[in-house]
Write a structure and sequence with these properties.
alpha+beta; archaeoglobus fulgidus dsm 4304 fold; eight-stranded mixed beta sheet; 8 strands
């Protein structure tokens, strides 16, 4: 891709993000007892024959029983190049096609990635919310550093957290989901507050992973889909 074309693409992406971020709400638009189904979502990539492909997997769980209710996937070629800070523009086409395959209607989506914890508050969990029209949560395995600000490690106690504050604003939360494991990074997507996002994340933590069940299963499903399809595309 020519430098000029990439620069024009980036400016267009920034303009779209700046427009959408004016409509972010960090308040719940639901009651917690209204949550029935929660979807976990992740995407894996691979290259073949000089092309890039992606698999989007969605795993839907019952909030109360934590049982798996539905799982779908969608695979296609990726046409948008990777540019840091603009992941949603690569992933949204896959996400929206995968969502069309769902027979259930999730109350909320959890993403393996960031939401408000983004330099323009437009990580994939936030960006996708405007198309899904549902509350969203970002749960990342690694820290996305903004303005060279590091996170503060929480106590080694399950449920301990420290807020990620940049220029006086809380962007997200470093959460110790289980004792003696690395923390995860929780941020609001949209139409949810950070305490509720943290509570829902902890609700889905089990003894087998530091990630909440919907995100963990989505992550595992993407690896399986990639292994299954990368030789078949």
């Amino acid at each position: 891709m020519l430098v000029l074309e990439k620069d024009e693409m980036v400016q267009n992406f920034i303009a779209q993000q700046n427009d959408l971020k004016e409509h972010i709400s960090l308040q719940n638009n639901f009651l917690e007892n209204q949550i029935s189904l929660v979807a976990g979502l992740d995407i894996a990539y691979w290259h073949k024959n000089n092309k890039e492909y992606g698999a989007c997997c969605i795993q839907v769980f019952d909030f109360r029983s934590k049982n798996l209710i539905e799982q779908v996937s969608y695979i296609n070629e990726i046409t948008v190049p990777y540019i840091s800070g603009f992941l949603a523009f690569r992933e949204l086409p896959l996400i929206l096609e995968a969502v069309k395959k769902l027979k259930t209607q999730p109350s909320l989506y959890m993403f393996d990635g960031n939401g408000y914890l983004h330099k323009r508050h437009m990580g994939i969990a936030t960006h996708a919310s405007f198309y899904l029209k549902k509350p969203t949560i970002g749960v990342a395995k690694t820290y996305y550093k903004i303005e060279n600000i590091d996170f503060t490690m929480p106590e080694n106690i399950a449920g301990a957290f420290t807020d990620i504050v940049i220029d006086g604003e809380v962007f997200g939360r470093t959460l110790r989901s289980r004792k003696n494991v690395k923390p995860i990074f929780v941020s609001c997507g949209n139409w949810i507050d950070l305490d509720t996002a943290t509570n829902i994340t902890m609700h889905f933590i089990d003894k087998d992973s530091r990630l909440p069940i919907p995100v963990r299963y989505a992550d595992l499903a993407t690896h399986q889909a990639r292994k299954l399809h990368q030789d078949d595309v």
